[in-house]
Task: structure prediction
Amino acid sequence: MTTKPEEEYFARLEAEKKRKIAEAKRTALATVELIQLKAAHWMHCPKCGLELEEIVYRGVRIDKCFHCGGVYLDNGELEKLSGGESHFWDSILSLFKS
Ligand SMILES: [Zn+2]
Result:
């Protein structure tokens, strides 16, 4: 026969085990949701939802929406494009005029 402190000890162990299982399920679900979100939105314009086209400008792959004219840069691409160029914005604007 178990004593009350023993029952509480095993109940705490069981609860901790179930909490860890629930946490692992939550993490797995979050990962699946992230994968599904990425698959649903990958290379789609965040403004209008249509597909983005990749164009290469000065060696940088730029994502452009030819429907609404949006231009999207990945992390670090703006820095690569600007790279000390004095007329950077004039150059970019002339390229993406619709
Ligand atoms: Zn768009």
